[in-house]
Amino acid sequence: MASSGYTYEISLKLVRARDGSVPTDPASLTFEHVSHDDILGIVERMRNGSGLDSSASAAVAVGTKLLGEVMIRDKKNPLFDPLRAGLHEFITSLKQKTAT
After folding, report:
1. In total, how many domains does the chain have?
2. In-domain check, residue 43
3. Which value, to the nearest 10 degrees, does the dihedral of the CA atoms of residues 38, 12, 32, 41 take?
4. Predicted confidence band at 75 (pLDDT cuts at 50, 70, 90)?
5. What Gene3D superfamilies does the database record attribute to this sequence (predicted)?
6. Is 53 helix (H, G, I), strand (E, B) or coil?
7. What pLDDT sits at residue 21?
8. Residue 100's CB: how many other CB atoms inside 10 A?
9. What average pLDDT does the chain have?
């Protein structure tokens, strides 16, 4: 079955606790996410044009794309109502700042 976009495997692993300790058996989370955009390309544009450091650029790009895609797919869910206008404005501004 063909995908309607790019399919990503998203992984998150705890590498250091708040107190600085390193877990012996780190907690982790992995899931798949489909996006209509090339998220890796967006991360690169963010790194080149946002003024943020490399890690912060990746976090903003990935977080924004994950949230935005879920909001698009579940557009009738009132959970997202308070975010819609602000997120749209933020993404528009971000695209202007990071355009290549």
Report:
1. 1
2. yes
3. 0
4. very high
5. Protein of unknown function DUF3861
6. coil
7. 95
8. 7
9. 92
Banded model confidence at residue 72, pLDDT cuts 50, 70, 90: very high
Output phi, psi for 50, to 5 deg: -90, -20
> Which domain range does residue 77 map to?
6-98
Please state, in angstroms and rounded to a whole number, the distance separating the CA atoms of residues 82 and 26.
34
- The CATH number of residue 40's host domain is 3.10.20.850
* Sign of torsion over alpha carbons 44, 46, 48, 53: negative
Residue 42 is encoded by which pair of tokens? 């967006």
Distance CA 37, CA 69 (A): 9
Q: Are 79 and 44 in contact (CB under 8 A)?
A: no
Cβ burial of 71 (10 Å; 0-12, 13-18, 19+) is middle
Cα angle, residue 83 at apex, residues 78 and 86 outer, rounded to 5°? 145
Determine, yes or no, domain membership for 56: yes
Question: What is the spatial distance between Cα 99 and Cα 46, in angstroms, rounded to a whole number?
Answer: 9
CA–CA separation, 27 and 9 (whole Å)? 17
